[in-house]
Specification:
The structure is a single chain. This protein is α+β, with helices and mostly antiparallel strands. The protein has 11 helices and 8 strands. It is about 45% helix and about 20% strand. Strands 1, 2, 3, 4, 5, 6, 7 and 8 form an 8-stranded antiparallel beta sheet that branches. A hairpin with a 3-residue loop joins strand 3 and strand 4.
């Protein structure tokens, strides 16, 4: 059986932005008591009553099934391939189905990094459940976290923090892409839009024009494109033009004013202003 590790963090580790407090794996057979013995008192709970933790916990169920209930997230049926995120200060309870049991990995953590992501609504107590399916990479990351916590070499917390970040990013990306792939026309439309904008980078086109080319309404195009890429079509197109401007500044002696007109920025002054805002220096400084 893989070990269960409870970790004491220090003030130096906290400065890294994220620290891990517990990590482990357990397999619960049909009709076995849950949770089993061997846990630290802080983490023991009665599923009938639930509990409140002072840290985040990320659980991954790789076999069996069960149920999860949280104060803000409601009740969910949990299947193999599901991950769920528990929040500090949030009442919750969960347990495997008595007939099937389940296999679970978990890792508990806290810090300003995860708090920042919650603040900006990447993660929410209202949506604790993520369907990612069976994923060998995720299992490998949990196993690596258990090994790292068991060995506890110098500065091991920094490695554990990186594993948690990898798990969170992989969970978020996989879940979002599974949602988007339910409508296969969305990725195809976005890729078609990108290719069209790239081919028209030195043309004076509008984003409604791109939507018309794709034969969809502009409102639908803008909403879908931003959801998929994180940028509005107009912002994405500006970034493409700025990349092209950097190429021209590096490899040609074309005057900056001509570059701004060639790429259809409103005025040379606007081009200089947005270039400095996005790139960090003016076009002339970049060229030098």
């Amino acid at each position: 059986m893989k070990p269960i590790k409870y970790i004491v963090e220090n003030s130096r580790d906290a400065l890294w932005g994220l620290t891990v407090r517990s990590v482990g794996y357990q397999k619960i057979g049909p009709h076995e008591a849950y949770p089993p013995g061997g846990h630290h008192q802080e983490y023991l709970f009665q599923p009938e009553k639930g509990r409140i933790l002072q840290e985040y916990q990320l659980l991954y169920i790789i076999g069996g099934k069960g149920r999860l209930s949280t104060r803000h997230g409601g009740t969910h049926n949990i299947q193999a391939g599901d991950m769920f995120l528990l929040f500090p200060g949030e009442w919750h309870t969960y347990r495997p189905d008595e007939e099937t049991g389940w296999e679970e990995y978990w890792i508990g953590f806290q810090g300003v990094n995860i708090a920042h992501r919650v603040e900006h609504e990447f993660f929410s107590a209202k949506s604790p459940l993520y369907h990612i399916g069976y994923n060998e990479t995720v299992i490998g990351l949990y196993d690596e976290a258990i090994r790292t916590a068991s060995q506890q070499e110098a500065y091991f917390q920094q490695l554990l923090a990186g594993i948690v970040n990898h798990l969170l990013g992989l969970m978020f990306m996989t879940s979002q892409n599974r949602t988007l792939s339910a409508s296969p026309q969305i990725p195809a439309m976005v890729e078609q839009a990108k290719k069209y904008m790239e081919s028209a980078i030195e043309k004076d086109i509008s984003m409604p024009h791109v939507a018309c080319h794709l034969n969809v309404s502009y409102a639908t195009f803008r909403h879908t494109f931003k959801k998929y890429t994180g940028l509005s079509p107009a912002q994405y197109f500006i970034n493409l033009r700025l990349h092209r401007a950097k190429e021209l500044l590096r490899s040609t002696s074309i005057p900056i004013k001509e570059i701004s007109y060639r790429l259809h920025f409103e005025t040379p002054e606007y081009f200089t202003s947005i270039f400095k805002k996005r790139i960090g220096v003016t076009p002339s400084a970049f060229r030098r």
